[in-house]
Write a structure and sequence with these properties.
GO terms for molecular function: heme binding. InterPro entries: CcmE (IPR004329), CcmE-like_sf (IPR036127), NA-bd_OB-fold (IPR012340). With about 110 residues, the protein is α/β, with parallel strands linked by helices. Helix content is about 30%, strand content about 40%. It contains two helices and six strands. Strand 2 and strand 3 form a beta hairpin.
Length: about 110
């Protein structure tokens, strides 16, 4: 009887821990406005439009608010819709990835 009780407690504990870890690793898409309201955050995915680029720094906007992002790579397009992955320190988004949306349109002939 004690073994069954221990097994049940272990299973419930493991399941709860797995749910907590999964919850913290899920990174929902946010907007610049969401980030400003949230404060510091790690491993975020931010959707917005690049409105200006200056070297490795660019401005990302959702139409309401604009944030500054720093990226150690090349941003290919101005005025592009992107998903930026990185860490938000409350003032600057430190980007680890900038994923540009494809603007290819398929037209029937």
């Amino acid at each position: 009887m004690a073994d069954k009780k221990f097994s049940l407690i272990a299973l419930v504990s493991f399941t709860a821990l797995a749910i907590i870890v999964l919850y913290h690793n899920i990174s929902p898409y946010l907007t610049p406005s969401d980030l400003i309201a949230q404060g510091k955050a790690e491993n975020v995915q931010v959707v917005g439009k690049i409105v200006s680029v200056n070297g490795n720094t660019f401005q990302l906007s959702d139409g309401k608010n604009t944030i500054t992002a720093v990226y150690n790579g090349t941003v290919q397009r101005y005025d592009a819709e992107v998903v930026v992955v990185g860490n938000w320190d409350g003032k600057v988004l430190h980007a680890t990835k900038v994923l540009q949306k494809c603007h290819t349109e398929y037209k029937g002939g």
